Protein: Alpha/beta-hydrolase
Organism: Pholiota conissans
Amino acid sequence: MEPRYRLVSGAPFKPAHPFLTQLLDAPAGYNYLVNVVGFAPENIFISGDSAGGNLAHALTRGEGLKPPGPLGGLILLSPWIDLGTTNESLPDGSATKFIGTDYIGDRNGDAMYAKAAFSGLHGLGILETNSYISPGSLDPGLVDFKKFPPTIIVAGGAEVLYDSIVTLKERMARDLGDKLRYFEAPDGVHDFMIFGWHEPERTNALKEINKWMQSLGVEKA
């Protein structure tokens, strides 16, 4: 299955498909599995890494799913979960501490392009407090997770996004309790699981995800 999707772009290219487009496109695959193929929602796990983790969260939160039953689970791998500035502005935070060692340290390069293109005509201000975009923001009024399925979060202890991921973890733990599992690789860079050489962190994370899925009744995860 390969759902159709639209890619966001912004200046100096032609601006196209900013925020909300993704919440129209992403549910298509889920709805196809449930309403056409006949999968039960509890047999579906939504996962994403980095910016894909942001989308996986938004899809789970979004109204586009409206499942007849609860999802099987949510897997967030180094999710880019605060597109605003609340975490990256911390003087002694991970965005400053690991900027020289993590490969996504440049806040004014690709990351800023992605933010500007994604926010589009809404402006960058929407990134600070929108619960679909930045649930890891330090804004105290943001989001609850009471209706979320069992979730596992994987983070690298040496990634620039670490602080925002920990903020997300604490918020989800408050609402989900033991339905939340968290795994941290102490020396892991951002999205370390995509690198075959990043061992033993990569294998340890995969084993933890497998153990978590089996605890939910998934056989031979």
